[in-house]
Structure formats: structure tokens, C-alpha cells
Amino acid sequence: MPPRLGGMKTLIVYAHPEPRSLNGSLKDLAVTTLEEAGHEVRVSDLYAMNWKAVVDAEDYGPYASSPLRVAQDSGRAFDASALTPDVAAEQEKLLWSDTIIFQFPLWWYTMPAILKGWVDRVFTFHFAYGVGEHSDTKYGERFGEGTLAGRRALLSVTTGGPESHYAARGINGPIDDLLWPIQHGILYYPGLEVLPPFVLHSTDRLTAQDYPEVAKAWQERLLTLATTEPIAFRRQNFGDYEIPALHLRPGLEPADRTGFALHIRG
Ligand SMILES: Cc1cc2nc3c(=O)[nH]c(=O)nc-3n(C[C@H](O)[C@H](O)[C@H](O)COP(=O)(O)OP(=O)(O)OC[C@H]3O[C@@H](n4cnc5c(N)ncnc54)[C@H](O)[C@@H]3O)c2cc1C
């Protein structure tokens, strides 16, 4: 029996239109596995909620400018506690949670549009960005600081393509690079620590016979979330970057390191 860890408050944000899909099964398994281990779980099932995926003036009511200024207007509505109830509820769930799992299939090399729309609408100005002091020495609270600091996030992603297509020399590009905009740009930006993703490849060929092994691997990840080390992204305001250029200071990285990986310590 795995150890009972207990006490985590987990939000699962789930994006798949079919409850009987593999993604649906993985979401259901996460709920039962975490609850049986003594954790609290809430689920945002975006298709079941009929989640509105596009930002528009209706999101900001009387705080919508004409012409619409999405960032500023979302911040004004946030400051006035006047965001729409659906968005306010998601922000409340994020603040309630200490662990956030995103369960989705890779569609066109990224998350399904409904999930991107969740980010666009829920991660408002003054909540997820435009937070903290902007000065000569500090460029806001982001990348290691911010509203969601102290919480952890995990992507659970299924792909159609096999693992080799997503390897360092694979034609699709490395999976870590494809997930970079989500893991670093969306999750680390407002302060979430990001755990290494749980990625299942070749899922279109998965059979009922294959599923128990997949389920076991997922349960093992779920039951070790509390002790899993996050990806060591560099923090913005703690000396690694020149401010305001936000260039990585020379010499901090291993000699052969380039690209996105520059922004990971060690
Ligand atoms: C618009 C679109 C874009 C895409 N873009 C990409 C892309 O960029 N890169 C890429 O690699 N792939 C891509 N794909 C493929 C996609 O990532 C996969 O189809 C998806 O990840 C499979 O997950 P699913 O939940 O939809 O699987 P499902 O179709 O629900 O299931 C997959 C298989 O698992 C089986 N299965 C076994 N046990 C279970 C169980 N207990 N519960 C449910 N199913 C089970 C099912 O029978 C089925 O054969 C794309 C697909 C679409 C529709």
C-alpha cells in the first residue's frame, strides 16, 4: 500500500469533450486515488461546465472600456471584485488549492482551445500578471513570485505521437520545449512551482490491456506529488537576471546549454 500523505487540496482542471475518453479515465482515476489517500479534490470539467473560452467585453461589465482594453479592464474588474461569477469561481478554486493538475490531450502541439480560454479569462491582470513592484531592481512579482506562489502544478498530457517523435532529435521537437510556454510562461509566471509533467505517448494505440500499466504509473505519480521536486526554473528577482533587460547573467549556465534550458538551474 502506498503511504497515505493526506492534506493536499487539489484542483484538477480537465479538458476533454468525452467523459469515457482516456483523459476522462485519467481524471477519474486522479480523483479516486487522491481522495482515497485522504486529499481534498475539486474538479473543473471545462466541457461539462460549458466553459466560455473567449474573452470579450461581457467579461468586464461596466469595467469594459470602449475600445476594449483587455489587460487593463480585466484588472479593474478584478480590483472591484466584479469579474463574472465563472471566472471568480475559478480564481477562488486556485487560491483554495495547493496543488493543481491539468489533464488534457495534446492538440496541435498544445492544450485544447477551451483550456487556453480558461487561462485567458481566469489569469487576469492584477491576479496572474501585473502583480507587485515594478522598479529598477524588480520587474513585478512573476517567475518564482506572484499570486499563486507556494502552490504546485502538474501537467498530465496524452499525445498521439510516439515518444521518439518528441525526443531531443524527434521531428515534433522535444516535449519539454513544446510544454515550455505552458509550464514556464503560464504556470511559473504567476508563481506556481511546476512538477515534471506526466506524459503518455502513442495513446491512440492504447488498448484496454495496456491501461492497467498506464493507470499504475499515473497513480504512482499522484501518490508522490508531495515529495516530487519541481523543475528548477530560475527565479526572476533573485540575481540570475539583469533587470530590466531580464537577460540571464553570463556564465551562470553550463558551457553547452542553450535555448529554453538556459532558464533552468543546474
Ligand atoms: C484536434 C486534434 C489535434 C491533435 N494534435 C496532436 C498533436 O499535435 N500531437 C500529437 O501527438 N497528437 C495529436 N492529436 C492526437 C491526440 O493527442 C490523441 O488523440 C489524444 O491524446 C488521445 O487522448 P484521448 O483521451 O482523446 O484518447 P481516447 O481516444 O479516448 O483513447 C485512446 C485509446 O485509449 C483506449 N483506452 C484504453 N483504456 C482506456 C480507458 N480505461 N479509458 C479510456 N480509453 C481507454 C481507447 O480505447 C483508445 O483506443 C490530436 C488529436 C486531435 C483530435
TrEMBL record:
<feature type="domain" description="Flavodoxin-like fold">
    <location>
        <begin position="8"/>
        <end position="222"/>
    </location>
</feature>
<dbReference type="GO" id="GO:0005829">
    <property type="term" value="C:cytosol"/>
</dbReference>
<comment type="similarity">
    <text>Belongs to the NAD(P)H dehydrogenase (quinone) family.</text>
</comment>
<dbReference type="InterPro" id="IPR003680">
    <property type="entry name" value="Flavodoxin_fold"/>
</dbReference>
<dbReference type="InterPro" id="IPR029039">
    <property type="entry name" value="Flavoprotein-like_sf"/>
</dbReference>
<protein>
    <submittedName>
        <fullName>NAD(P)H dehydrogenase (Quinone)</fullName>
    </submittedName>
</protein>
<keyword id="KW-0560">Oxidoreductase</keyword>
<dbReference type="InterPro" id="IPR051545">
    <property type="entry name" value="NAD(P)H_dehydrogenase_qn"/>
</dbReference>
<dbReference type="Pfam" id="PF02525">
    <property type="entry name" value="Flavodoxin_2"/>
</dbReference>
<dbReference type="GO" id="GO:0003955">
    <property type="term" value="F:NAD(P)H dehydrogenase (quinone) activity"/>
</dbReference>
